[in-house]
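One example given next:
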Amino acid sequence: MLPRVEFAHLPTAIDHLPRLSRSLGGPELLIKRDDQTGLALGGNKTRKLEYLLGDAISQNADMVLSTGAAQSNHCRQTAAAAARCGLDCTLVLVGPEPEAPSANYFLDLLLGAKIIWTEKRSRDLALERTFLEAGKSGASPYLIPYGGSNALGAYAYYQAYQEMLEQLNNELPDWIVFASSSGGTQAGLFLASQVFKGPQVLGISVDEPEKRLRDTVARIAGDLVGLLGLEQVINPEQIHVDSSYTGEGYGIMNERDREAIRMFAEAEGILLDPVYTGRAAGGLVDLIRRGFFEKGEKVLFWHTGGTPGLFADRYIRDI
C-alpha cells in the first residue's frame, strides 16, 4: 500500500445541475465537487498531495519544494499540506513579484511558504538549484513536480474515479469533462476508465497543444501502470484531449471563459476559477451548443477547484 496522509474531505459530493441543463438544452449535467476537498479552500491537488506528502514523510523529508504560476492553485495547496504535516515549504513561482499579494499568492504567504521568484524559461533550473541548495544547507528536501503530476499524484485520481463509480452506481454518466494542463489528473482518470470500463474522460486543455498534452498524459499513465503493476497497454489515441479553447494562452481570459463563469454562478450558485475550470466549462458549453454530446446523454463536469483565483486583482477587473 502506498504511503498516504489523509487530510482531504472525501468523498466529494456529486450534484445535478438542472437549471444549467435546461438552459443549454443538451445533455443532463452533473458536477463532482473537488473544489471542496477541504485543504485551504480545496481543489484537485489535495487528493494528489495526500500521496505525495505521504511519500515525503516516508523518506524522512523535513521540507517540500514545488513550482507554479504566481496564482498557482497547486502551490497554495502544497503550502497548506506542508503546514498540516509540520514540514517547511519553498515555492518557486513564475512571474514578477506583485506589489501587493492577493488570492493564491496571499494564501501561500499566510500558510508560511518561502517564495522564490523566477522567469518561466528559468523555472526548472531555479527549482533544481533551490533543491540542491536546501540539501547542502542540511535540510532533507522532497521535490513535488509541477502540478503534482507524476505517477503518485495520478494514482489519487485513479482512486477518485473509483469513488465516482461507487457514488453513482447505476446512474453513470457517458462522459467526464474537466480542465487538463499538467496531465496528472487526466492520467489517473484515463487509466481508471480503461481498467474499470466506465465513462469516457475528456480533458479540455487550458494551455497545452493537443499532441503535447496527450503525450504527457500517456507518459504519466504509463508510469502509473508500472507503479501499480498492471498489464494495461496505454494507447495515446484513446486519450481524449480538446485543445480548441486555449485562446491566447494560460491565464488570459476570453469572453467564452467569462460567460461560463457567469452561467455557473447565476444558474447554480457554483463558483469557477478564471484559469482552469472557467476555461473547461467554456469548452463544455461550446461542445453542448455544437451538438458534440447527444441530448439523452449524461455529462459530469469534474470541478477541479481554484476558487481563490477569482479574487486576484487582475481577474476581478476582467470578470
Notes: The chain has two domains: 14-43+149-318, 45-148. The chain has a mean pLDDT of 97.
